[in-house]
């Protein structure tokens, strides 16, 4: 996992499922070693950084849980 200092200069992108109306949106950013996730309404807030395999498992779990 990377520190937030390393994650500061990365390119964030909003989820394709996020609407233009605000609400529950996330952004992700990919680095060579992690996928970072943050709340788009609070970009200065906490960041969850997962390794690629853990991120894939998380996405599969989240898709099954809806």
Automatic annotation (TrEMBL):
- A Pfam family annotated for this chain is DUF397
Domain named DUF397 is located at: 11-61
**InterPro entries cross-referenced by the UniProt entry:** DUF397
Protein name as annotated: DUF397 domain-containing protein
Q: Which organism is it from?
A: Streptomyces ferrugineus
């Amino acid at each position: 996992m990377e520190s937030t200092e390393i994650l500061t200069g990365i390119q964030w992108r909003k989820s394709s499922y996020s609407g233009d109306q605000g609400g529950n949106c996330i952004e992700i950013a990919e680095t060579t070693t992690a996928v970072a996730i943050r709340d788009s309404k609070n970009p200065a807030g906490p960041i969850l950084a997962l390794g690629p395999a853990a991120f894939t498992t998380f996405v599969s779990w989240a898709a099954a849980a809806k």
